[in-house]
From TrEMBL:
Record organism: Acropora cervicornis (Staghorn coral)
Alphabetized UniProt keyword annotations: Glycoprotein, Glycosidase, Hydrolase, Signal
Lineage: Eukaryota, Metazoa, Cnidaria, Anthozoa, Hexacorallia
Name of the molecule in the record: Beta-hexosaminidase
Stated family: Belongs to the glycosyl hydrolase 20 family.
Start and end residues of each Glycoside hydrolase family 20 catalytic domain: 157-384
Keyword Repeat: no
GO terms under cellular component: membrane
Length: 519
């Protein structure tokens, strides 16, 4: 919709708690919103003011000023409307300068514009960041879409995540930063890094340098520290996942008498077990302890999916391995997280473990067993090329009672790189080759970046909306929904987020109907 049509449409419109989708194109949809009155010009010298001493907030102000002042267009545009009143400042206030990021961090905010004055109030600096994001989305063609705004907003769920599988295909570091930027624009707050799988242990270990002996593609400890800090500045927690039973081929470098890991081979998988010599558990504890020093979040993910029990890996010694590592995390002040199999396959999950559900109807079962759960159902949130974007607009608490829903922490999308995993690096000679293995070797980083970014965005925009404020009355194929989705998608591209182009479909092998060239 052209900007002049948009502005004329909303000139006298009032939207109260979204009886219909607002053409203001705010995403995710706020909890409560009222807009009225004509557009309000944004001054070319607009600024934010605050009495807060929060570094997170001050750095956020710098970022959003740059975004907003780009949106106010040129000096000529402003001078052509010199007689119009202009908004020159917005005051930000927070209840606390505490910048600690936790699973229960408050992200709520209120945004008010009235009588030529604007303010954002929040309990934490992170809520204020979200308020600035919403404010920036209200600016079209150098104007606030309405001169009277009242928004009271908070997420329905505390956990709103995106997982990347760096344990198979390495993600270039600059791509991780770009994805974090995109997450911040749609109010996602959990960045889950699956750092160990078939192909690699993707984070440098100084304790066990053998873990990187077969690859040059890994993240140094300093790079991880910088990445965690960058994400935290945007209200995003980084959670590591160190597979600790199955999917541990990336630990093969420690399969020797002196280093202590003991593996059993089940159907082509290398799997850990609690060996009688007592070597595996201490070694894994050392690895977890080193990773805890790099990832300060309360949550630490142990994986534990697709565990098989046979041969040396009995149900008993697999369960005891998993439980010892969970208890070790608790002793070190962490909350263990695991995939659903930690309960459904081995019954190893200890009290307080957060379980991540990905198949079937297991969500209700996990909750009924007393566990807090994250919804990552593959048919809705596995961002493969075949997943239709409409599948991500869904009620993640569907089928749960209000009491059961209180145990649902939120949702998380997943980007698995099975289809990108380079065969010679992953030792997959006895496994079916990924569909795109021949295209995405180490020398194809730029092509991989383009391909995987097109799978993430714009699909993850929709998933983020479901985690924040799903609305059953809004249909994902309706013109109104598509208008607001396209506006957000375009906004993110303009801000530099790598994405599938507007109006296109992208998957592992194609972009806008064109196949990626073979190397």
């Amino acid at each position: 919709m052209p900007a002049h049509s948009l502005l004329s449409f909303i000139f006298f419109a009032v939207f109260l708690y979204f009886p219909a989708l607002s053409v203001a194109s705010i995403w995710p949809l706020p909890s409560s919103m009222s807009l009225s009155g004509p557009p309000l010009l944004i001054s070319p010298v607009f600024t934010f003011k605050t009495s807060s001493n929060s570094g997170v907030l001050k750095r956020g102000i710098t970022r959003y000023l740059e975004i907003i002042l780009r949106q106010t267009n040129t000096k000529d545009h402003f001078e052509s409307r010199a007689n119009d009143k202009a908004l020159s400042e917005l005051f930000l206030s927070v209840s606390t300068d505490d910048e600690t990021l936790q699973p229960v961090t408050c992200y709520s905010y209120t945004l008010t514009v009235s009588n030529g004055q604007a303010s954002i109030k929040a309990k934490t600096p992170y809520g204020a960041l979200y308020g600035m994001e919403t404010f920036s989305q209200l600016i079209v063609d150098g104007c606030l879409v309405n001169n009277t705004v009242n928004i009271n907003d908070k997420p329905k769920y505390n956990h709103r995540g995106l997982m990347l599988d760096t344990g198979r295909r390495y993600f270039p570091l600059e791509l991780l930063y770009n994805i974090i930027d995109g997450m911040s624009y749609v109010k996602l707050n959990v960045f889950h890094l699956h750092i160990l799988d078939w192909c690699r242990f993707s984070v440098e270990s100084k304790l066990y340098p053998e873990l990187q002996s077969n690859t040059s593609e890994f993240y140094t400890q300093e790079q991880i520290k910088s990445l965690v800090s960058y994400a935290a500045d945007r209200g995003i927690r980084v959670i590591p996942e160190v597979e600790s039973a199955s999917h541990v081929l990336g630990l093969k470098g420690l399969d020797n008498k002196t280093k202590g890991l003991r593996f059993c081979n089940i159907s082509g998988f290398l799997q850990l077990y609690n060996d009688p010599e007592g070597m595996t558990v201490p070694t894994m504890k050392n690895i977890l302890k080193e990773m805890m020093s790099l990832f300060p979040d309360q949550y630490f993910h142990l994986g534990l999916d697709e565990v098989k029990t046979s041969s040396l890996c009995t149900t008993e010694n697999t369960k005891s391995l998993e439980q010892e590592l969970m208890e070790f995390l608790v002793q070190n002040g962490r909350i263990p997280v695991a995939w659903q199999e930690a309960l459904t396959s081995t019954s190893a999950a200890i009290n307080g473990t957060v379980l991540q559900a990905w198949t079937g109807t297991v969500l209700k079962y996990l909750i009924d067993k007393g566990f807090k759960v994250v919804n990552s159902m593959g048919n809705h949130f596995y961002l493969t090329g075949s997943l239709d974007i409409s599948a991500l607009w869904t009620d993640i608490a569907s089928g749960l009672s209000p009491q059961e829903s209180s145990q649902l922490l939120g949702g998380e999308m997943a980007v698995w790189t099975d289809n990108y995993c380079f065969v010679s690096q992953c030792f997959l000679y006895n496994r079916e080759k990924p569909i795109a293995w021949w295209m995405y070797g180490p020398e194809q980083d730029s092509q991989f970046t383009e391909s995987v970014s097109g799978i993430i965005w714009p699909k993850a925009i929709v998933g983020a909306g479901s985690f924040w404020n799903y609305r059953p009355d809004i249909k994902p194929n309706s013109p109104e929904f598509l208008t607001i989705l396209n506006a957000q998608h375009k906004r993110m591209i303009q801000r530099g987020v790598l994405s599938c182009p507007l109006g296109c479909k992208c998957d592992e092998l194609t972009r806008c109907g064109e196949k990626y060239p073979q190397p």
